[in-house]
Amino acid sequence: MPELPPFPLTLDGSSLLHQMFRFEWSAWRRLDPAGRDRAVAEVSSLLAPMERGSSEGHPSQSAVYAQLGHKGDLMLVHYRDTIDQLAEVERGLARTEFGTFLLPTHSYLSIVELGLYESSSKLYAQLASEGVEPYSDAWEKRVEETVARQSAAMSARLYPAIPAAKYLCFYPMDKRRGEHVNWYSAPMPDRARMMQDHGLIGRRFAGTVKQIISGSIGLDDWEWGVDLHADDPGVFKKLIYEMRFDEASALYGLFGAFYVGVRLPVSRLGEWLGVDGTR
Predict the structure, then answer these.
(1) Exposed end of the chain (fewer CB within 10 Å): N or C?
(2) How far, in Å, CA of 17 to CA of 164, rounded?
(3) Nearest in space to 135 (alpha carbons), one of 145, 124, 121, 126
(4) What's the longest Cα–Cα distance across the chain?
C-alpha cells in the first residue's frame, strides 16, 4: 500500500477579498460640493446592498473599515460564493466616480477554510484498515463523501456573515519552512496535536473575538489569512501575544503585516468624507 497522505482534508467556503486603499484627499477637496455629493450617493447605492448581504442562501456581504496608520485609509472586505463574484465587486467599485479617488495599497485573496486534522486521521486509518488504496477511485469517493457531509454540517462557519463588531484586525501568515524546522515535514499527528493546542487558546477568547481563517495557498503571497473581529481592540494584542507561546506559533509561525480598521457603516461614509456637515 502507498503511504497515507501527509496533508489533512480541508473544507472550503466563501471566497474572500480584502482591499486596502489610500484616499486621495487633495483631489477630493478640489471636487465641488455637488460632485462630492454625487460621488458619495453613487458609491453608497453600490455598497449599501452589499453591506446588508443576501437574505437567502449565504450572507455574501461586504463591509467598509476606516483603516488606522500609514498603510492606508480604507479597508473593504468582501465575502462571496465565488472568485468570479469578487471580480465583479472589484470592477464595480473601480467604475464609480468614488473609485477614482482610491489608490490601492494592498489586497488579499483567500477562501474561508476549516482544517480537518482529526477527521482526516480517522478516515485515512479506516480506509487503510479496509485495504482501500490511497487515491484510488474508491478512496476519492469516500473522501468526497466525508467532505460533503462535513461541509453541510459546517455551512454557517464556511459561509459566515461579517461580524458586527466595531474593530477588525487582519493579517496573513505562513508555516515555517526554514533551515531548522519545517512544518510540512512534521508528521501529521504532531501537526494535529499542535493545531489542537493552538485552537484551545482561541476558544478561551470565543466570547470576545470572532476569528475567521482563510486559506490562500496558490491564491496570494502567504498561506493563510486571519480576520479577528472584536469590540475591544485591546483583545487583539492579548490573544495574539498568548498564541505566540504555543508550539505551532513559537516554532513554525511566520506573520505578515497587520491591518487594523474601525467599522464604517456605508450610511456614515459621507460623514467620514466630510460631505455631511463639513465640506
Answers:
(1) N
(2) 18
(3) 124
(4) 74
Round to whole Å and give the CA distance between 155 and 150. Answer: 8
Known catalytic membership, residue 259: no
* Spatial CA neighbour of 96 closest among 174, 7, 35, 160: 35
Cα separation, 132 vs 141, in Å, equals 11
Count CB atoms within 10 A of the CB of residue 278: 7
Give the C-alpha separation, 143 to 122, whole Å: 12
Gyration radius of the chain over CA positions = 21
Residue 70: DSSP 8-state: T
Q: How far apart are CA 92 and CA 124, in angstroms?
A: 45
Chain center to CA of 225: 5
CB neighbour burial string for 120-146, b if at least 16 within 10 angstroms, e if fewer: bbebbeebeeeebeeeeeebeebbeeb
Cα-based torsion angle of the residue sequence 55, 61, 66, 67 in order, rounded to the nearest 10 degrees: 160
d(CA 247, CA 256): 19
Q: d(Cα 189, Cα 191) in Å, to the nearest integer?
A: 5
Catalytic one among 124, 171, 252, 259? 171
Instruction: Show pLDDT as tens, one digit a residue, over the chain (279 residues).
Output: 567 889 999 999 999 999 999 999 999 999 999 999 999 999 999 999 999 999 889 999 999 999 999 999 999 999 999 999 999 999 999 999 999 999 999 999 999 999 999 999 999 999 999 999 999 999 999 999 999 999 999 999 999 999 999 999 999 999 998 878 999 999 999 999 999 999 888 888 988 999 999 999 999 999 999 999 999 999 999 999 999 999 999 999 999 999 999 999 999 999 999 875 544
